[in-house]
Amino acid sequence: MSQLPADCLYEILKYLENDKFTLNSCILVNRFWCEVSVRIFWRNVWNYNTLNFRTLIACLSNKSKEILCENGIIISTPTSKFPTYNYASFCKVLSVEQVYNKINLLLKRTISSKDSNNIKHMLPIVVQEIFKLFIKHVSSLKKLEILSFCQWQSPPTHFIFYPGAKDFFKNLSELHCSSNISSEFFYQLSQTCYNIESFTIEARKIVSNGLVDLISVQKNIKYFDIMLGYGLTKNELINTIPSLMSKLSNTLIKLKLYGNHHHYTSLSFIANLVNLQELVLYFCRDGCFGDFGKLQYNNFQKLQILKIQDRFPKVEVLVKFLENNGKYLKEFYIGDDDGKSDNSLNLSIAKFCPMLRKLSTGIKSNELETLKIIFDNCKYLESIKIWCGDEFLSEKQALETVVKYSQNINEIILYHLFTVRFKLLPKTLESFFVNWTNRTPQKSFSLVIVTYDGENSLDKNDENMEIIQKYINLGVIKNFKVTDFDDKEYN
Q1: pLDDT tens-digit map of 9-42
Q2: Which residues are CB-contacts of 39 (< 8 A; sequence separation ≥ 6)?
Q3: Tens-place pLDDT, residues 135-165
C-alpha cells in the first residue's frame, strides 16, 4: 500500500497541533504515523503536562541525572531506559515560564511533604538541566517566550550562556518577551539571531537598552506587537516606541499597539510604515491616541485591516482617515468606547470602504437605515459583527436587515454589550431562518453570539435551540457558537 511521504503527512497533521485528542489517535494508527504525530505533539512546550516532563527527565544525559541525584532530586520516569524517541529534539516553541511552572508542579507532586521547603532550591537545578537538554538537541528553535513572572521581576536568562546556545537561537523567527530582560540577554541574542519575523514586547517599568540593539540587527521583522503597561512613564512611551520602529519602515506589515497607561502615545511614527497591511490599536483610556490626527492625511496603500478596539480617536479624524484609506480596507473593526457610536462614522464606512469583507460596528436602533446603506455600498461584505441591546439594534432588527439587504454575508456575529439580555423570540428566529432559506442563491452561514453573561444567552432558550438545531441539520447553519468577551477570535 502506498503512503504519503513523511514531510507531506507532517504538513497535514500539523493542523491538529491544538487538537490533542485527534493527534493522540493519529499516534495509534501505525509506526509511521506515530513518528510524524509525535514530532507535532512535542513541537510546542505548551502541550506538555507533568508526565511529559517526566519523559524529558528520562532523556537527560547521565551527567545531568547525576547532578539531580547529588542534590537529592529523585523524579520517577515512565521508563528506566532511554525513551523510544529523543523527544526534546522535536521542540520548536519554548516558553520559559511554562517550563518553570510545570517543573514546579512536578516537584510538588514528587517531593514528600517533609521536603517541600526544598522545592525553591530544587526548581532552578531541574530547569537548568532541562534547558541544557533542549539546547543540546534542538537544532533550530522557532519561537521563544520569555516573560516576567510578575510585573516587576526580570525573567531568568542564564540559559543564554549555555554551550550551544548560539546555534540554538540562530534561526529564531518569533520572540515574545518582556522589556525588562537584562541587556546582556538581548546582546547575546543579537550576536547570531538576525531573522526574527514576529516580535511581541510586553513593556514593563524598565525598557532594556539591549532591546533596541536586538531589533536594530534584524533583517526582516514583519509583525510587531507592543503591550504598554502601567509602569511606563510618559517620556518612555514617547521616546522608546519610535526608536524601536525606526529600522522597520520597509519590512513591517503588521503592527499591534496595546495600552492601559495614563499617558497618550505618540503615533506619528506609523506614517513611515509604508508597507503596513494591518494596524491594531487597543487603548482602554481616553486621550491615549495622542497625535493620531497626524495620520489622517497619510495614504497607506497596502493597509487592508484596521482594528481600533475599546477607545477610538475623534470621529472627524477617523472619518478623514477612512476617506484617504478606506478604499484599500478589507476588514474594519471599531470598539464600543463605552457604548459611544456615531452615525457619521458608519455612513463614512459605507461611503469610503466599498471593498470590505469583514466589519464590526455599532448602529443605534433609530439609525437602522445606515445598516441598509452599508449593505448596499459594501457589496463584498461576508462577515458582520453587530452590537445589540440598549440603544443599539435589537437582535430582531439586526437579523431582519441582514436577511433582507445583505448580498454575500456568510457570518453573522451578534455582540451583546455587557449585561444585556437576549430578547429574541423563537417565532422571530424561525422567521429569520425561513427567509434566509428563500434567498437566491441559497447559502449556508455561521451564527456567533458574543455575550457577557452566558446565563442570559440565546442557547438557554430550549425552543431557540430546537430551531437552531433544525437548521444545522438542514445545512443552513454551518457553524453555531456562543462565546464571551474573552474569545480573541471575536473580540
Answers
A1: 777 777 777 777 777 777 777 778 777 788 888 8
A2: 10, 90
A3: 999 988 999 999 887 655 667 888 999 999 9
Handedness of CA 436, 439, 441, 442 (dihedral sign): positive
**What local confidence, expressed as pLDDT, does residue 206 receive?**
76
C-alpha–C-alpha distance, residues 398 and 386, integer Å: 7
* Single-letter code of the amino acid located at 69: C
Distance of CA 283 to the CA centre of its chain: 17
This model's pTM is above 0.70: yes
d(CA 25, CA 30): 10
Please name which of 38, 40, 39, 36 lies closest in space to residue 14, comparing C-alpha atoms.
Answer: 40
For 240-261, what is the HEC assignment?
Answer: HHHHHHCCCCCCCCEEEEEECC
- Kind and range of the H or E element at 196? none
How many Cα atoms are found within 13 Å in the side-chain-facing hemisphere of 432?
24
Give the pLDDT confidence score for residue 4 in this predicted structure.
67
Q: What are 412's three cell numbers?
A: 453573522
* Contact of 472 with 434, CB cutoff 8 Å: no
Read out DSSP for 122-168? HHHHHHHHHHHHHHHH-S---EEEE--SSSSPPPP-GGGGSTTHHHH
- Look up residue 249 and give its amino acid: S
Concatenating the DSSP letter of every residue in 347-372 gives HHHHHH-TT-SEEEE--BGGGHHHHH
Number of residues assigned to the chain: 491
Q: Are 429 and 403 in contact (CB under 8 A)?
A: no
In 391-425, where does DSSP find H-type helix? 395-405
Indicate the average pLDDT of the chain: 85
H-helix or E-strand spanning residue 84:
none
What is the pLDDT averaged over residues 400-409?
Answer: 94
CA 109 to each of CA 73, 105, 106, 270, 297: distance values in angstroms, whole numbers, following the listed order: 13, 6, 5, 50, 60
